[in-house]
Design brief:
The structure holds 4 protein chains of 4 kinds.
Chain A: H1 9-24, H2 30-56, E1 64-70, E2 79-84, H3 86-109, H4 116-135, H5 139-157, H6 165-195, H7 200-209, H8 211-215, E3 217-219, E4 222-223, H9 224-239, H10 248-251, H11 257-266, H12 271-278, H13 280-285, H14 287-309, H15 314-334, H16 338-365, H17 385-397, H18 403-417, H19 421-446, H20 454-459, H21 465-480, H22 488-493, H23 501-506, H24 524-549, H25 556-564, H26 566-573, H27 578-624, H28 632-651
Antiparallel strand pairs in A: 1-2, 3-4
Chain B: H1 9-14, H2 16-34, H3 39-59, E1 63-65, E2 70-72, H4 74-100, H5 107-124, H6 128-146, H7 153-184, H8 189-198, H9 203-220, H10 229-236, H11 239-245, H12 248-265, H13 273-293, H14 298-314, H15 325-349, H16 370-384, H17 390-404, H18 408-434, H19 448-466, H20 469-478
Antiparallel strand pairs in B: 1-2
Helix pairs in contact in B: 2-3, 2-5, 3-4, 4-5, 4-11, 4-12, 4-15, 4-19, 4-20, 5-6, 5-12, 6-7, 7-9, 7-10, 8-12, 9-12, 10-14, 11-15, 12-15, 13-14, 13-18, 14-15, 14-18, 15-16, 15-17, 15-19, 16-18, 16-19, 17-18, 17-19
Chain D: H1 5-10, H2 14-30, H3 36-61, E1 68-71, E2 75-78, E3 85-87, E4 90-92, H4 95-112, H5 121-140, H6 144-153, H7 155-165, H8 170-203, H9 210-213, E5 216-217, H10 220-237, H11 246-253, H12 256-281, H13 283-309, H14 314-335, H15 338-369, H16 385-399, H17 405-419, H18 423-447, H19 465-483, H20 486-489, H21 493-508, E6 516-517, H22 536-539
Antiparallel strand pairs in D: 1-4, 2-3, 5-6
Helix pairs in contact in D: 2-3, 2-5, 3-4, 3-5, 4-5, 4-12, 4-15, 4-19, 5-6, 5-7, 5-12, 6-8, 7-8, 8-10, 8-11, 10-12, 10-13, 11-14, 12-13, 12-14, 12-15, 13-14, 13-18, 14-15, 14-17, 14-18, 15-16, 15-17, 15-19, 16-18, 16-19, 17-18, 17-19
Classes of the chains: A mainly alpha, B mainly alpha, C mainly alpha, D mainly alpha.
């Protein structure tokens, strides 16, 4: 089978599934819904994997571009085209595999929901849009996917639409994303206006051929590259939940848990990272913006990690953890470690999806309860969920040889190598915090004794196979995914040939620009030292967590903390009051302005002026008409006076 | 006998339309006396006379007659036909009203026909005395018609006011004639023109004389500031009379006024005359529309609207020349149709003549009188000057003339005021269709003739707007000599 | 040596003015009408004077017509006065103002 | 051989589909006592025949590569030399999309008013048909006088539709609509007359023909005045800030069908007027005033969006959103770039589709609940899943979600504006994109999402078959244009390109000090109509 010529079917199949489920199938036909809902992404996954395999084994040109049809005409001729290159291959792999597993999991998790059909339709739609995003050959197709995933995110966060909060959260997600998208759009406009094309390949070629165009001053003292990358990064901030646009992601947890796993952990939120890496040639030409990216990434990483420490909702912890890890990825991209960013993206997809699905399993067992304060000691009730959750926690904490260790280590090494020591410091601190709050969640959830109601305890049960099998498969990924990117240094120290597969695979998409030095090399000893430091920090974080929350200690530490440092605790628990700040500083003044426009400008000024004008006209008429007194003598006088006045006027 | 004063058959024949009308009127009066049972057919007879007059007008050979006291040309024919159209409409809508008010009598058509004869004479007269006599002939008839509803005070009051004002103004007119005659030595337009060209006479007295003449006819046209009588008379006089009164005398008076203005403007006295007309036009448009805006009585509103429309008609005279005739004629024909149409419908659907003709009582009647309300709507839209109606065609030519001859300011005033106009014409439409009915109409009589009149007026207004070609080629033919 | 034409004209103008003022100031309808007749006659006087000056009969012709018309006007006018007096019991024009504004 | 109007009316012509609705609608006025169903079906059949007439006419000429698809024989209309006016209509790529949209919306509007209009259905349908004639006529007029007449013909039926079948404050809204529009169009009339006169002064023969008037080269001060007159008329129709306040009132008070036609097509005549008349006739003035108009467009985008956001009435929200959307169209038009123009043109259609659908949906809701206030809704997705689906779909199209139609237009407008050098306007107007999401999602939030707060909302019936049929074509087109806009963009391109080239070349030369007459262009017409004329006259 020549999967490469069928490239466009990879996103098309899920769309088809969504359409069939959405329009043709009826609510009651649950079996059919499940079949369609799984077959579409499943087929897409198989097709994707085959295509990647055929591509990687050299059956395809380098890189592969497939134009389906031309979208517009004339001066702005843009094709709907797909592109398979190492970067999109990695992304496609992650998206289809993780996506499919989560679909399978959903069959169990959502099985009793009334909106089962709707759910699968949206989920398939999401898969389609996400694949459009990663496989698109130009910014336009990417943007279609970009907004498409945003839409699905909106719809799925608001899945429980008959409650107050979820649709609100969905709206918030969409709007905040839109703020980013607007910058993305401006960036696209600047690119198109400068290069006349939106094709990734062409833009990269042009920039490589003549970097001075991109370096030429554009606006605000920024170069073209600087302006475009800044815009694109603002877009990424929205999608990937970076400061200051991260606020939607924690709220997004209002959606069903598999959705959180798929969209708000594994795939959609990483789109920003993908985009930055995709346009790395421009970022390399805009060092100041790259540094900004790294700074934002680092700040987000530690900021979210601190909030994660004080959250009691298990999904909220994971959400802030996601924000924090995404910050890590941007940190990597900002310091020029693009491969590391994608590496972390991939490993994160596995362990974070696993964490979410695990938490889903917990919530499922708890009958919808998400508050860790009411959990505890679940490990004996959830024999499969617990170990997989633990594996994922170890992975995210960066314990070797699990996936997170390698990817996180590569990021930190990249930061250190680029002499961004402060950023490295923040990164390492975040690593410790990550280990700490993640193990906190493990201890509070699975260890100690149960703190919920008897009724809940009675109902505790392990999830069905259809949910646990994906957990196991993902756990496998969380363990092994890191091995494709074992650092060159380790291979060499161990005396092997360099088997850093990912690096070699991805190197073609990382542009090498003359005069831009990306190859900061660390000595093997430094690299090893750094690894040890990060492992030590991770273990330290774990130990702290164990001391505070391990065993039967439960919530005692939290209470002590709240008593000793009430201010800090409240600050963290309330997420630094950022939502409130935004509300006061942006939303309300804007609403006030809008109301002012309506009531004052529209109603009072414009309509008022009109009404006054009409009134004055009418008043003139109304006063004037009394000149027609009804008395004939007055009329005669008017005539007489009129004649005299006109005569007077005529002779002078 | 001096052969100069003998009357030839050809000259008599040149008076054929007027003679037909006068004889017709007299005949009807006789029939009223001797065969009152035929009353119901009087108006149809009258129509026949109007038709005959119309035919005579159409076939009249061009040229002066009666030693140049009157003349016939395609131009006078065109305006005469407009007058006759108004007379026909006035006759068509009257019988329903008259029988409803138990006023049916031969005097009505008789007065109307005599009045029409006076109007035709006014259109054709080119000598001051002829004009004066014609004017008095038509005025006296109109006084009688305005007071035709003997039993109600408002009708009598309207007639009296009209009479007193008319008499007052005619004194000025005669004085003007005297001055012009005295300073130029002639009462014929041609003679006056020649004298003016020679520079004969005292400019001051001539100016005064012409001004008095112009004001006299401006009074007939109800131009501001000589307008004040119009609302009272329109409101008080019987509605079918107003349908005639509000249009026919205007057509004829405009002809005289145009003649006068052209006469003066082309003479050494010219100077400020165009500006005078511009002033009158602007004042009329403004006052007419502004005062109409606040009226609650539809007849009174239409009176003020008529004032405004005469302002529009005057726009081409602000840049006088032979080219002024054409827009004036187009506008007047449109005005005859839409204004007479509006009054015709008012005649029929307001059942109580003495009462106020409140616009608000039209509420919801659009569904009660679908045909008449539709016609009224068309007339209102046409009066408002919205295409595709005759009113728009008229405005088009008038504004075009203004722009062509550098009177842009006047055109802009015209536009601003027509916007005000839209507001009150639309009020009628929304009353008809958009308000719930508050009171059922009472005592109304809708007869065949009235319906025909309304349809002719409204249909004509629409036709002139949509397919004006035939009308315009007729107009064009009327001005071939100019 | 005859009276200069201007005297006639001035006399006529004065008569006209008196008539006009009378018409404007009287409240009785008939008085107003009488004043108007005065104005008409002032105009007639002007016509006659000019006619004499110009040695042209046309002016005097006009005078005859004006007189005739004035008579007709008087007839119609009086009829209207009677009509209104029947209905309103007054011919005070200040009070004949049912129709206004 | 001279052609008569009747020949045109009966032949395969533009005239036929322009006048067919009114002529075929006349019997409706006589069917006062006929059963309601008969009247409705008759009107619907007329509208479908009309759609077929337009469709057949266009399909037969689709392949022609030139700018002008067709033109009817020129007839004398107001024949009073030298003040002659001819009746001349033609169809080109610029008017084509809007003509098709009009034809499409007509049956939809009638079907959508099936039960919503509860009195004088025949009169309503006739008003709609008359309105259609006015719209189509204005879109195909190639003579400014003819254009003006059709432009005004639209007023009365719309006035009646708002005033008779509207809501409580309908008369205020109707009069406001009428006066606003009339104020602008009277100024335009003076401008048109002035142009015709100037042409007459230079040639001795008056003319209001578009192609003749395009040859006029006016001094800059005259251009500015005339452009002002035209621009005010069109800006009121669009409507642009600050002359927009009639629109919310008109929309809120108008019946559903009236709103759909108003938003769907009537407003587009303003933007169409800019593109077709104001810019090409007065290039230098337009060029000089471009920044100001762009600024007004931008203000409209942001202002409309902001005000829409705080509305408490669903219909008013959609109305204000129209101001914002039309702001985008104006931005594209004033950018004077081919991509932007294409975007603006397709955006006119898009807005007609998505906003039309939204108004229909609001109307359907109103028929069920007799309220349009947000506070009375909430949680309607539960009882009305299909309604919610279509509402979400149309809203998203309106928001400008990629792969739906709204995005195509907005994107092309932004690209064109940015490319043409108006970077700041393009960048700032994207704020409107963000705000669009805010207010439209607010609408969804308060209507279909959330718990049901009113008992009456528990059992609101979902869309019926008729309603689904009304909405389906709109939805299909929204998706189609979004996914594959090329076939919709292609027919307009040559016409727009020619117009733009002409505009640019005229702007490049300085304005003369005295009015001049440029030599007649190739094949005695503007380049817009030069290429590939399918000469109807030759065929006769």
């Amino acid at each position: 089978m020549d999967a490469l010529s069928l490239l466009w079917w990879i996103p098309a199949l899920p769309f088809l599934g969504a359409a069939v489920n959405g329009l043709l199938v009826r609510n009651g036909q649950k079996g059919l819904v499940t079949f369609v809902g799984l077959a579409a992404p499943g087929a897409s996954m198989l097709l994707g994997l085959t295509a990647i395999w055929q591509y990687a084994t050299g059956l395809a040109p380098e890189p592969l571009r497939q134009a389906v049809y031309s979208w517009t005409v004339g001066e702005m001729s843009i094709d709907v085209a797909f592109r398979l290159d190492p970067l999109s291959a990695v992304m496609t792999f992650v998206v289809t595999v993780v996506g499919f597993l989560i679909h399978v999991y959903s069959v169990g998790y959502m099985g009793r929901e009334e909106g089962y059909r709707r759910y699968f339709s949206f989920l398939n739609l999401f898969m389609g849009a996400m694949l459009l995003l990663v496989l698109g050959s130009n910014f336009l197709v990417m943007f279609v996917g970009w907004e498409g995933v945003g839409l699905c995110s909106y719809l799925l966060i608001g899945y429980y639409f008959d409650q107050e909060f979820p649709p609100e959260a969905g709206k918030k997600a969409f709007v905040v994303n839109r703020i980013g998208d607007f910058a993305f759009l401006v960036g696209m406009l600047a690119l198109f206006a400068s290069f006349g094309t939106l094709e990734f390949g062409e833009i990269t070629e042009r920039v490589l051929a003549a970097p001075e165009i991109a370096k030429a001053p554009y606006v605000f003292g920024l170069s073209l590259a600087g302006f475009v990358t800044l815009c694109l990064f603002i877009g990424a901030m929205g999608k990937s939940a970076q400061i200051p646009l991260y606020v939607w992601l924690p709220d997004a947890m209002a959606g069903p848990t598999p959705v959180s796993a798929l969209i708000h952990a594994a795939t959609m939120v990483t789109a920003g990272v993908y985009m930055v890496v995709r346009t790395n040639v421009l970022y390399q030409l805009a060092p100041e913006i790259s540094l900004f990216v790294a700074g934002i990434g680092a700040a987000t990483a530690i900021f979210a990690a601190t909030i994660g420490l004080a959250q009691n909702d298990i999904k909220k912890v994971l959400a802030y953890s996601t924000v924090s890890q995404l910050g890590y990825m941007f940190l990597a991209a900002g310091v020029g470690a693009y491969v590391a960013a994608i590496f972390h993206l991939a490993t994160h997809a596995f362990f974070k999806a696993l964490l979410f699905l695990g938490s889903g399993s917990v919530i499922h067992a708890m009958g919808g309860e998400q508050d860790m304060q009411k959990m505890g000691g679940l490990r004996k009730h959830l024999p499969l969920t617990y170990p997989t959750y633990l594996i994922a926690t170890l992975a995210i904490a960066g314990i070797p040889p699990l996936a997170g260790f390698f990817s996180k280590d590569e990021i930190l090494a990249g930061a250190f190598a680029g002499h961004h020591h402060l950023i490295w410091g923040v990164g390492i601190l975040t690593a410790g915090l990550t280990a700490c709050y993640m193990f906190r969640s493990v201890y509070l959830t699975f260890h100690g004794s149960f703190r919920g109601s008897h009724e809940q305890e009675h109902h505790l049960h392990e999830s069905p196979k259809v949910m646990t099998v994906p957990l196991v498969l993902l756990a496998l990924g969380a363990v092994t995914a890191g091995w494709i990117g074992i650092p060159t240094g380790l291979w060499e120290m161990a005396g092997f040939a360099d088997h850093n597969v990912l690096h070699h695979f991805l190197s073609p998409v990382i542009a090498t620009l003359p005069g831009v030095d990306t190859g900061h090399h660390l000595s093997h000893s430094t690299e090893l030292l750094l690894m040890l430091v990060s492992v030590a920090v991770a273990l330290g974080g774990w130990l702290v967590a164990k001391r505070l929350w391990g065993g039967e200690r439960g919530l005692a530490a939290d209470r002590t903390f709240a008593e000793r440092l009430p201010f800090v605790q409240r600050l963290l628990a309330n997420k630094y009051y950022v939502d409130e700040l935004y509300d006061r500083v942006i939303v309300r003044p804007l609403a006030g302005l809008a109301r002012g426009c309506w009531k004052i400008v529209d109603t009072l000024l414009i309509d008022g002026a009109l009404h006054v004008g009409a009134f004055v006209t009418e008043l003139t008429g109304d006063l004037g008409r009394f000149s027609t007194t009804g008395n004939i003598r007055n009329y005669a006088l008017y005539f007489f006076a009129g004649v005299l006045l006109l005569f007077w006027w005529m002779i002078f | 006998m001096n052969p100069e004063y003998s009357v030839s058959t050809a000259e008599l024949a040149s008076l054929a339309p007027e003679i037909v009308l006068t004889v017709g009127g007299s005949l009807l009066l006789l029939l009223e006396a001797f065969a009152p049972r035929l009353r119901r057919s009087f108006h149809w007879l009258g129509l026949a006379f109007v038709a005959a007059a119309s035919w005579y007008v159409a076939t009249l050979p061009a040229g002066p007659s009666f030693a140049g006291l009157i003349e016939a040309s395609s131009l006078t024919a065109a305006f005469s036909q407009a007058v006759l159209l108004a007379a026909a409409l006035g006759l068509l809508v009257a019988p329903g009203y008259l029988s409803r008010e138990r006023l049916l009598a031969g005097e009505y058509p008789a007065l109307l026909l005599w009045c029409a004869a006076g109007l035709l004479l006014l259109v054709r007269g080119v000598e001051l005395l002829t004009l004066f006599v014609a004017l008095e002939l038509l005025s006296l008839c109109l006084y009688g018609l305005a007071g035709f509803h003997r039993r109600i005070a408002s009708s009598a009051e309207a007639a009296l006011k009209y009479f007193l004002m008319g008499a007052f103004v005619s004194a000025f007119l005669v004085y003007g004639i005297a001055l012009v005659y005295g300073e130029t030595g002639s009462t014929r337009i041609e003679g006056i023109a020649a004298a003016l060209a020679r520079g004969q006479g005292s400019p001051g007295l001539l100016l005064l004389g012409f001004l008095l003449l112009a004001c006299g006819f401006a009074f007939k046209l109800s131009l501001v500031p000589f307008h004040a009588w119009a609302p009272d008379v329109y409101q008080g006089a019987p509605s079918p009379v107003v349908a005639f009164l509000s249009v026919a005398p205007k057509v004829a008076s405009v002809v005289v006024l145009v003649r006068l203005v052209l006469l003066v403007a082309e003479s050494p006295l010219g100077g400020k005359w165009p500006d005078l007309l511009a002033l009158l036009a602007a004042a009329s448009m403004l006052v007419g529309n502004l005062f109409a805006l606040v009226q609650r009585d539809i007849k009174r509103m239409l009176a003020y609207s008529g004032i405004a429309h005469m302002g529009y008609v005057m726009i081409p005279l602000a840049a006088p020349g032979p080219h002024s005739w054409q827009p004036v004629l187009v506008y007047l024909v449109a005005y005859v149709l839409m204004n007479a149409g509006a009054f015709a419908i008012v005649t029929m659907i307001y059942g109580q003549p003495g009462e106020q003709h409140a616009i608000s009582s039209l509420a919801g009647w659009g569904y009660r009188f679908p045909l008449l309300a539709g016609c009224l709507t068309v007339c209102m839209v046409s009066l408002a000057g919205v295409p595709p109606t005759a009113g728009f065609l008229g405005k088009y030519f008038v504004f075009l003339h203004a722009i062509e001859h550098g009177r842009l300011g006047l055109a802009l005033i015209g536009i601003a005021t027509s916007l005000i106009g839209v507001a009150f014409y639309l009020r009628v439409v929304y009353m008809l269709y958009m308000k719930p009915e508050v009171a059922a109409p009472e005592g109304f009589v809708i007869d065949f003739g009235g319906r025909v009149g309304a349809v002719i007026a409204a249909g004509g207004s629409l036709l002139l707007g949509i397919w004006p070609q035939r009308f315009l080629s007729w107009v064009a033919a009327s001005f071939e000599r100019l | 040596m005859s009276v200069p034409i201007s005297w006639y004209l001035l006399l006529a103008a004065a008569l006209f003015a008196i008539g006009a003022i009378g018409a404007l100031t009287r409240r009785n309808g008939i008085a107003i009408f009488l004043s108007i007749e005065l104005m008409l006659n002032a105009a007639n006087l002007t016509l006659a004077a000019y006619s004499r000056l110009l040695g042209d009969r046309a002016g005097q012709m006009v005078v005859f017509f004006v007189l005739a018309v004035a008579a007709a006007e008087a007839a119609v006018g009086l009829a209207l006065f009677i009509g209104i007096f029947r209905l309103r019991r007054t011919i005070d024009v200040n009070r004949i103002n049912l129709l206004r504004w | 051989m001279s052609t008569s109007f009747l020949d045109l009316l009966l032949g395969d012509t533009i005239t036929r589909f322009v006048f067919f609705p009114t002529v075929a609608g006349l019997p409706l006025l006589l069917m006062r006592r006929a059963p309601a169903a008969t009247v409705k079906i008759y009107a619907l059949v007329v509208s479908l025949v009309e759609l077929a007439l337009i469709g057949l006419f266009v399909v037969g000429r689709w392949g022609s590569t030139g700018a002008l698809l067709a033109r009817d024989a020129v007839l004398p209309w107001i024949d009073l030399a030298p003040l002659s006016v001819v009746y001349e209509v033609g169809l080109d790529g610029i008017s084509l999309p809007l003509v098709l949209l009009t034809g499409l919306l007509l049956p939809i509007v009638l079907l959508g008013s099936w039960n919503g209009i509860d009195k004088h259905w025949g009169g309503y349908a006739f008003s709609m048909l008359l309105l259609t004639t006015g719209i189509l006529g204005a879109l195909v007029a190639l003579d400014l006088f003819v254009f003006y007449v059709f432009w005004e013909v639209m007023l009365i039926p719309m006035y009646l539709i708002i005033g008779i079948w509207g809501a409580e404050r309908r008369i205020y809204a109707a009069v406001k609509f009428f006066l606003f529009t009339m104020a602008g169009s009277l100024l335009m009339l003076i401008g048109i007359l002035w142009l015709g006169w100037t042409y007459g002064r230079l040639t001795g023969v008056w003319s209001f023909r578009y192609e003749d008037l395009l040859r006029l080269e006016l001094p800059i001060d005259q251009q500015l005045w005339l452009f002002g007159a035209f621009a005010i008329a069109f800006a009121i129709k669009v409507p642009m800030f600050p002359v927009h306040t009639w629109l919310p009132d008109a929309h809120v008070e108008a019946p559903t069908g009236g709103s759909v036609i108003l938003a769907g097509i009537l407003l587009k005549l303003g933007t169409y007027g800019f593109l077709r008349f104001a810019l090409p006739l007065f290039p230098h003035a337009a060029d000089r005033l471009t920044p100001w108009l762009l600024a007004l467009a931008l203000v409209g985008i942001v202002y409309g969006a902001l005000v829409a956001w705080v509305q408490v009435d669903m219909k008013k929200l959609v109305a204000y959103s129209s101001i914002a959307h039309l702001g985008f169209v104006m931005l594209g038009i004033m950018a004077c770039d081919l991509v932007a123009w294409q975007g603006a043109l397709i955006q006119m259609v898009n807005h007609g589709l998505s906003t039309g659908a939204l108004f229909l949906l609001v109307g359907m809701l109103y028929e069920r609940r007799h309220t349009k206030k947000f506070e009375d809704f909430g949680g309607l997705a539960k009882p009305m899943p299909w309604f919610a689906t279509v509402l979400v779909f149309s809203t998203l199209a309106s928001v400008g979600l990629p792969a739906l139609n709204g995005f195509v237009g907005e994107f092309m407008i932004l690209v064109g504006t940015f490319k043409a050098g108006w970077r700041w306007f393009a960048a700032l107007s994207t704020v409107g994109v963000v705000l669009a999401a805010i207010y439209l999602l607010k609408m969804l939030q308060q209507t279909i999402w959330g718990p049901i707060t009113r008992e009456e909302n528990e059992s609101v019936p979902d869309l019926g078959l008729r309603e689904a049929l009304t909405l389906a074509p709109l939805c299909v087109l929204m998706l189609w244009i979004g996914v594959a806009p090329k076939p919709f963009l292609e027919p307009s391109r040559p016409a727009l390109a020619a117009l733009l080239e002409d505009y640019r070349s005229r702007c490049a030369e300085p304005a003369p000090d005295e009015p001049l007459l440029a030599p007649a262009r190739v094949s005695a017409g503007s380049p817009t109509f030069a290429a590939g004329v399918v000469d109807q006259e030759a065929g006769r």
